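Following up on my earlier thread - several people asked me to post the actual chain instead of describing it. Fair enough. Here it is, all 161 residues.
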Amino acid sequence: MITIIAAIANNNVLGKDNQLIWHIPADLKRFKKETSGHHIIMGRKTYESLGKPLPNRINVVISKNPNYPVPAECMVVDSLDAALKLAEHDTNPFIIGGAQIYAEAIKIADKLDLTHVHHNFEGDVFFPEIDPNIWEVSTRKDFKADEHNPYNFSFVSYKRK
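Reply from S.P.:
Thanks for posting it. Predicted structure:
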C-alpha cells in the first residue's frame, strides 16, 4: 500500500517559501507515529525544509542530481518509480512531499492520510485536488483548536475507490 501523508489548508495550501505555515503538534505526533519504521519518500526541497534525515525511517530523496549530497542514512534516487522500487519490501511506504511529488504520486497511491487544517492560508505550494470520483473518506476525526494546536483540524483518511 502506498500512502500519501500531508497537512493541507482549506484552500489546499501546503506551505510557503519551502516551510510549513502552521505548527500543529498533534499533526506532527501523528506523522511520526504513522511513518516510523517505514520508507518516507520526498523531493529534494522537502528534504531541505526538514534539514536532516528523520529518525526511525528510511529517508529516500528524489533529486535530478544523482550526486545530491545527503547523509549516509538517506538514499538519493532520480524518480518516484525508483523510490518505490527501493521501498518494494515495505508494506506501507509514505510519500511526504512536496507538491510535485504529490501530484505524481496521487495517480498511483492507494491511500491519502491528510490533516485538514480548517483555515485558509497564503502559500506558494498546493496539494492536488482530491477527486471524489476516485477517493472516498474511510475515517475522519475532528479536533478543535486548543492551547497547543492553534487551528481546528481533522485527520482524514481516504481510500481509492
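The beta strands are 3-9, 13-15, 39-43, 58-62, 74-77, 94-97, 111-117, 125-126, 135-143, 153-160. That should answer part of your original question.
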